[in-house]
Specification:
With 111 residues, the chain is mostly helical. Helices cover 81% and strands 0% of the residues. The longest helix is centred in the middle third of the chain and has 82 residues. The N and C termini lie far apart (120 Å).
Length: 111
């Protein structure tokens, strides 16, 4: 009879041990998945930053090209005003510029 009780206790203990082991494995699986999710998220930060930097560089390049074109256009206006024989002081006054900022721009040729 003692063997039967010992056997029943061992069976019950083994059952509880299996339940605890299953809970442990489930928790480990969950923790592993969470760690994987974390690494995927943090790895994407570098990619996001690299993409943003590339987009910023492209925007800066476009802005530089547009600024260069706008400066050339403004210089052409000044040159046209000067080619009409308008004194530099008058061009400066009309455009709200300092006289030193009114430089003789290269002549616009219509060849």
């Amino acid at each position: 009879m003692a063997d039967v009780r010992k056997s029943a206790k061992q069976t019950a203990a083994r059952s509880r041990a299996r339940e605890k082991a299953a809970e442990f494995r489930a928790k480990e699986d969950t923790l592993e998945q969470l760690a994987t999710d974390y690494f995927v998220a943090t790895d994407s930060l570098d990619e996001i930053d690299a993409t943003a930097q590339a987009e910023i560089a492209a925007i800066q390049e476009r802005a530089a090209q547009q600024s260069t074109a706008a400066r050339a256009s403004a210089a052409a206006v000044i040159a046209s005003m000067l080619e009409l024989g308008t004194p530099k002081a008058e061009v400066a006054g009309r455009l709200g510029l300092a006289l030193r900022d009114v430089k003789k721009a290269p002549a616009l040729s219509s060849h």
